[in-house]
Write a structure and sequence with these properties.
The structure holds 2 protein chains of 2 kinds. Chain A is mainly α. Chain A contains 14 helices and 2 strands, in the order ααααβαβααααααααα. Chain A has a two-stranded antiparallel sheet with strand order 1-2. Chain B is mostly helical. In chain B, 77% of the residues lie in helices and 0% in strands. Chain B has 18 helices and no strands. The radius of gyration of chain B is 24 Å and the shape is globular. The chains are: A mainly alpha, B mainly alpha.
């Protein structure tokens, strides 16, 4: 029995990675759910919006680094982030003006908008690949570790090390700030209240003098900002590959649906549910269990439920279960 | 087929002729073969979307399952691998199927409530561990045999043509399971769910090495009858003499002949499928499907069983895509799971159907040929065009990067084509009658 070491191993390999991944998913799912709440379609171009925005953040990071501006101990990407958001938001607003608005005035079926968004997905994916290429990019700089495993071992005298990457901490802090700001905006400001009213009942909102085009534009800007932040945090914490971002669409959509599509609170809960389930199911528990049981009972196998390559299967299974058992999600979405 | 349609097809034919004249006939034929295969896939998707209005983004999964069928039916047998764990593997898979059947039975028989939920969790939880306990030793045993060249259960070594219907069967069976679970969902949920299922099918193919060696790939799959190998032709004196007679080198003649044979075989399959699709679409069944698509409520009121009709057309469409997937793999002679990407095998096929004309079989074929051409020609001609565009730029990193990135222009081109067609001609090039 060695509860402390087991706890440290659990924190190090399950809890902290799950927390960071969950924050990233929650931000992405929030963006997806906001677009769904106001524009009423599932945006298939969402993953590529993240990739596109993160690409600009990376390019601006390189530019800043080349003229000698860095974030010091913090990653330079954080300075580049607002510029990346601005460029991406401008692009997304342009696509709305050129593409989506036509279908909105036509009151086209949601599925048509989904197909249209795949068109946008193709364009953004292509632009990303042409500009930065499909290869992996690493743009994290600044201090790497807040807590290095060896320092922790010396300090605590335990056999297990605990690592805390700076990017993990930044991810969680930035995500918390974003979520707080978003809820303040939705609950307290006039614009936020109009947005919720528009999402609840479009016709009634129109009668009350709410300008729908303004609501749509603000939604796009907020959703893009969240998507680019999520993408940048994911890229800093792990690494940037456009294809991975496209695949992130699935866990993010699952998070949004699990929480209840259209419900911001649900998107956050869903993000953490999906992230922790993925880590729980694909983590090899051998280490933790070995510490907990007596030496002769130590497990032989890895105690891994599924290989890490099946993490999509986890988010998908949860998605299907929720859709079958409670189709409106945990927080009663639409 | 009216004049407008014929004109469209003549236009596409001209594109291929132009490719042959200005680039090479080999390339033109190569693109045409892929175009015919894409047309078959587009026919399948058109059944799901055009006839029935089902938006499924799991096309890639059906294509991959078709490819898997080729490996299992016509791949080289690995008797040692099979002997090591084959029977145990079958037992575990049988156990898995029984387990799920038992869970479904219980779910349907028990009353809604905590008791059912607990029973399901216990049954599936315990069943999962039991399943892994039976499966894992078999997998270890199979993968242990000669992992450098085998490590899988091997195929049956049967002729490649036989694997095509099996590919359709695999994709159809998978579609039955998927449809049972997901078809009741709302349209955009169905899209997300099927996208996920396709990724899972691919994850299984990439990671389960015992099945088809995963990302280590399977090579040397036999060619379908009647297509010969180029090396055999070049070694055949009568063929070499004949080729020289017509003024070709034997290499040129053999590659062209092989491609022509593929083209004939694939086109024959395509024509048979179109014949039956047209018959089906213009039959009472086809009218019923379109009625369901246009108004589910009124069709249900007329006594049509919406759910089972949707399931039926979903299975048929996926089976057609699986057939094309098997044909593709048997032509390439190898299964490379990492080649299956959603952009290429799901969304590109979608663009073909929508650009060609949803609900029109000939439209799907036209879309398949036209976009198949566009997809591959931009890849080939993109760098050349970019070379001209960047002429004024000085040689350097930027110019090299732009030329290198030019093949990716096809994604932008396709996105733009899709958006333009959706906006200005939403019914596609050949609208439904």
């Amino acid at each position: 029995m060695d509860i402390l070491n087991a706890l440290v191993a659990f924190l190090n390999f399950v809890f902290i990675p799950g927390l960071a991944y969950g924050s990233q998913l929650a931000l992405g799912a929030l963006a997806l759910t906001l677009v769904y709440a106001v524009l009423r379609f599932s945006n298939f171009a969402h993953g590529d919006t993240m990739a596109f925005g993160t690409m600009w953040v990376i390019l601006i990071t390189w530019l800043l680094q080349s003229v000698g501006i860095t974030g010091g101990v913090l990653p330079t990407g954080l300075i580049a982030l607002p510029f990346g958001i601005a460029i991406t938001a401008a692009f997304v607003l342009a696509t709305d003006r050129v593409v989506y608005r036509f279908y909105r005035t036509q009151k086209a079926a949601p599925i048509i908008l989904v197909i249209v968004s795949t068109g946008i997905m193709f364009v953004m994916n292509g632009l990303t690949r042409v500009i930065i290429g499909p290869a992996e990019q690493n743009f994290a700089d600044g201090a790497r570790m807040i807590l290095a495993p060896n320092d922790f071992k010396e300090w605590s005298g335990l056999a297990e090390g605990l690592a805390l990457k700076q990017t993990t901490l930044i991810t969680v802090i930035v995500a918390a700030i974003c979520v707080a700001a978003l809820f303040w905006f939705l609950q307290r400001t006039r614009t936020g209240k109009s947005m919720r009213a528009y999402s609840d009942n479009e016709d009634l909102a129109l009668l009350s003098g709410i300008n729908p085009e303004r609501m749509v534009a603000i939604t796009w800007i907020i959703a893009t900002a969240l998507a680019v932040i999520a993408g940048t945090l994911y890229g800093l914490d792990k690494s940037y590959r456009p294809f991975i971002y496209f695949q992130l669409l699935l866990p993010m959509a699952a998070a949004a649906v699990v929480g209840g599509l259209g419900s911001p609170l649900g998107a956050i809960a869903g993000g953490f549910i999906i992230a922790f389930s993925e880590v729980f199911v694909t983590y090899a528990w051998k280490k933790v269990v070995t510490y907990l049981v007596s030496a002769d009972m130590a497990p032989e196998g890895l105690l891994q439920l599924l290989s890490t390559d099946y993490k999509f299967a986890v988010s998908f299974t949860i998605l299907i279960l929720v859709l079958l058992v409670m189709p409106t999600g945990i927080f009663k979405g639409k | 087929m009216n004049n407008r349609n014929l004109l469209m097809f003549a236009g596409v034919a001209l594109l291929f002729v132009a490719t042959g004249v200005f680039q090479s006939w080999n390339l033109s034929l190569q693109i045409l073969i892929i175009g015919v295969l894409s047309s078959i896939m587009a026919l399948g998707v058109n059944m799901q979307w055009g006839y029935a209005g089902l938006f499924s983004t799991g096309i890639m999964g059906s294509v991959a399952l078709g490819g898997l069928a080729v490996v299992l039916v016509s791949g080289n047998p690995v008797p040692e691998g099979w002997a090591a764990g084959g029977p145990r593997l079958l037992v575990s898979l049988g156990f898995g199927v029984l387990l799920i059947a038992a869970a479904v039975y219980l779910y349907n028989r028990m009353a809604v409530g905590t008791a059912r939920r607990t029973a399901m969790i216990l049954l599936l939880g315990a069943g999962f561990f039991a399943y892994r306990a039976i499966l894992d030793p078999a997998v270890t045993a199979i993968e242990a045999f000669n992992p450098a060249t085998a490590g899988n259960i091997g195929g049956l070594g049967l002729p490649s043509l036989l694997s095509w219907p099996v590919g359709a069967l695999f994709a159809g069976l998978a579609a039955w399971v998927i449809g049972k679970v997901a078809l009741g969902l709302r349209s955009d949920y169905l899209a997300i769910a099927t996208l996920g299922i396709a990724e899972i099918i691919l994850a299984v193919m990439k990671n389960e090495d015992w099945l088809a060696r995963g990302v280590k790939n399977i090579i040397d799959l036999p060619r379908p009858w009647p297509v010969p190998y180029e090396v055999d032709l070049q070694a055949d004196p009568t063929f070499v003499a004949q080729a020289a007679n017509w003024g070709f080198t034997s290499i040129e003649a053999s590659t062209i002949l092989v491609k022509l044979l593929y083209l004939v075989v694939f086109s024959a399959v395509l024509l048979v499928l179109i014949y039956f699709s047209e018959r089906a679409l213009n039959s009472p069944w086809g009218r019923m499907m379109r009625a369901i698509r246009d108004n589910e409520v009124s069709s249900a009121a007329m006594g049509k069983n919406i759910k089972s009709r949707h399931l039926q057309v979903f299975i048929i469409g996926s089976a057609v895509v699986g057939l094309a997937g098997a044909m593709l793999t048997s032509m390439e002679g190898q299964l490379t799971p990492s080649n299956y990407t959603p952009l290429r095998f799901t969304f590109l096929i979608w663009v073909m159907v929508i650009v060609g004309g949803s609900g029109n079989n000939w439209g799907a074929v036209l879309g398949g040929l036209l976009l198949g051409w566009l997809w591959l020609i931009v890849e080939n001609a993109g760098p050349v065009a970019m070379g001209y565009l960047t002429m004024p730029l000085p040689d350097g990193v930027l110019k090299a990067h732009l030329i290198e990135a030019a093949p990716h222009l096809r994604l932008i081109t396709l996105g733009a084509v899709l958006l333009l067609v959706l906006r200005f001609s939403p019914k596609g090039l050949l609208p439904e009658k």
